[in-house]
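Re: your question about histidine kinase

S., sorry for the slow reply, the queue was backed up all week. Below is exactly what I fed in.
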Amino acid sequence: MKSEALQFDQKIQLITVSFDGIIKETDNNLFDWKKGSSIYGIHPFFEILTHLQDDQDTKEFSFPCIHFENNGSENICDVSVKIDLSEIAIVFFDYTNKYNELNQSAQQRNESILISKELELKNKFLLEKEEFKNNFIANINHEIRTPLTSILGFVEVLEKTKLSFDQEELTRIIKRDSQHLHALIDDMVDISKIESGKLKIVEERFVFKDLIEGLNEAYAIIAEEKNISFETHIDPNIQEYILGDRMRVYQILNNLLNNAFKFTEEGKISLVITKNYQRTNKLSINFKIEDTGMGILEEHLDHIFDRFARFTENKQISGTGLGLAIVKNLVDKLNGEIKVSSEPEKGTTFNIKLPFKFEITKPAPERKKKKYFLPDTKKKFRILLVEDEETTQYLVMKILISHGSFYVDLAINGEEAIKCIERRNYDLVLMDLRMSKVDGYQATHMIRNNYGDEVISGVPIIGFTSNTQESERDKCLRSGMDDFITKPFKREDLIYIITKQIAKKAAD
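Result:
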């Protein structure tokens, strides 16, 4: 107990001072100040004593956190001053450690606040950067798809005319490179969806063999053109109908096969599909794509799935470097695995394992695409095309008029479209979504809600846009449109969707 009291006493020092500042008594527990010396010379703080003596009302004062030098070190003290009739009593309470701890805590708190603020700003920057990137890609997607629609559309029209051999060859090149550009745009949109977490995995029932045969037919033609061998083999034990995301599986295999054909000039390419295991209604399938192409250096294999990774100096081999990055992300999304092995000048092998489900009971046959026919009438059907791009206007009009069953009127925005339908009855409206003044959504809403005339309010409306996102289709249908077609489109797809809506309206 005595030891504890001594420790406590060592943190306090008491001195008495005369009114003229001479130290009369001191215990020197904290500071070695001599009796008889002037306190005013010790520290500037004590100059305050001359003013405190003039205060007739208050005789006791407290001053926190005063810094004093002591043999090269610094003490932080709270100081109490009491003035009586004969002298001034001053008490020093040494709180150096406590103030240092508080200061450290405050500093840590400030640093924590700064770090939190920095993370908040970084997160805000990343969100703004992501939003800018997505908006940029969406705008680029729209701006490129619009002229690309015209290029591919007019090539299809041109193919149906009488062409010389040279003209057919030039048309084929234009079509091939336009389709390649279309694929690059799709890659950019897909990687953006994947990175933003907007890519949805859809489980559907499909005929597995049909998926592979579709790939086989497409790449057999390319193999013949390049004079290389292409073989596919499917394990006969794999169920006919399986459950999974058909589109994403197709995308994975298509990207890998496209890559194999791109880097293989001679030899062969093979796609071998085998069953890994089957448990209850779960199924694991292995896809092996092997080529005899230029191969990949070992030091590049770790980066093969990086975005924009390109490991060839051959400028004749085009691409964005996004294909394999998309493949890896899609495989991960499907809870699968992908491995790659390669040897320069000998070829590359990709092995992908993907999980699926299958139905134990035999499902009903797949529904085929329903056929529709225009109503049997001698009159032509009148279409209102609402589109502000001149080349797209000309393309659609060329396709529809050459078909022989349609008249086409033109409006360049929603406002003009409203005026047109008020003057004339239409069998169908092709409505672009992005237009000045009144856009496609607004125009559709007005047509559906502002007219009591069923001929006007019930006219079939097909949304017409370069935005390929599923949300855009949903938005079109919610706004009152009957269907949706994306740019670029094939001639037969446009005719089919128009025929379908006119036939359905006539059947009502």
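Residues 101-196 form a domain with the Helix Hairpins fold (CATH 1.10.287.130). The chain has 13 helices and 17 strands.

Happy to talk it through on Thursday.
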